[in-house]
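Lab meeting prep.
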Amino acid sequence: MLTNLEHLGLAVRDLPAATALYTRLLGQPPYKTEHVVSEAVDTVFFQVGGSKIELLAGTSPDSAISKFLEKKPEGIHHVAFEVDDIEAEMARLRAEGFVLLNEHPKRGADNKLVCFVHPKSAGGVLVELCQEVKQ
């Protein structure tokens, strides 16, 4: 079950400039920066109440973020929801007819297991499922 809006992922071209902009906009610095090798992205996270804003910049022309920005302007890339059991939620969504972009959960940023739902099966929105990795 989806339990919470975990974060909004925003695709940006210039991560330092976007970080400065959101620091001023939100009135606080980011709590974390991270390079995610598997996705070829650099990320910056801001905490906003119980949710987060994730800035994403591609680190190679082949990254999903770089390809996204070739076709679209900077802005919302995905909506992420927290789940308690990502495997069970993936099975539920498959049974409901949603197309998943991942066969199995994978490691994502901010200590999460993640899976993406294809936008074509989710009303044009890329949806990310996130489950906290237990230490």
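Slide two material, second protein:
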Amino acid sequence: MAHTELDLPERRTIEDMLNAKVPVSKIAVKIGRHRSTVYREIKRNYFEDHELLYLSGYYGVNAQRSAEARRARRRKLLRLSALREAVIGRLKEGWPPEQIAGRLWFEGQPIRISHETIYAHVYSREGQSDALARYLPSRRKKRRPRYARRPRGLVFPPDRSIHERPEYVNTRETFGDWEGDLMIFERAQGTMNVASLVERKTRFAVLFRNDDRSTTHLMNRLMDVMAPVPQSARRSITFDRGIEFRNWRKLKPGMGTEAWFCDPQAPWQKGSVENLNQRARRYLPRDTQVAALSNRNMKAICDRLNGTPRKCLGWRTPTEAFREEMMKLR
């Protein structure tokens, strides 16, 4: 049965029966609702006057007005097309909801929204039909219950934070420090995606097709791809906190590589791979048939990206810069 919210007659019945000291369980039977629904309704809309205590209580009309106001806030992105397009556009650029809401406030937009409103829209029926969840950093199709969300402190411990990363990595002084990410495609591609890696000093890019977003499959595939590179040329990899990277502990014993993690919802902290993804989208748009990409296709795209002169490299290509660094290791 489809979910329906309480209406004004039901709320008035709750008010009358509460005033008559009727137990909540009997109120629930009377209006044909589960008792937990009635408990939540009373708790959410109970009016409390600390000065005039006798005025405190549940009032059906006030509860109805509060519910309508909440619905109006939730539906703001449906009613206002310009606001909705602005939010969706920034979601597609990789902005998390908190950044979008904060930026709208910073820009002084006449109509503002909270990040919770954006999340509510993303996971609403309309947002799910547009597959908006795939643009979130977590890329989770369904939102976990609010009180079931847990910090990922054990998965991504504080000592692996980007703020603990050695300073020489931050300054790009040394060779062999990488950034990693996943490029996600349209829902029709299923779990297939493309993993992207870039060496921070030389901007050398590695792209490979990844057929499964499970963390075990991804890390095994990553180690296979990076195995031919000498250990001194793969000292560390910096990721975001996507759940796909939770098996990062395999990297140290598997290939002697340290793992570092950005702050939550801070993709700019791995700006090199974000830049790579943006440039790679020229050849790998979101409607790409990932299953049709062969190793030869992926190599051709990498060769094109790595063969483009870069101003930050003094107009050398990433391939040239990478080879120079590899020669120094011999």
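Talking points for slide two:
Residues 158-328 form a domain with the Nucleotidyltransferase; domain 5 fold (CATH 3.30.420.10).
The first helix runs from residue 8 to 19.
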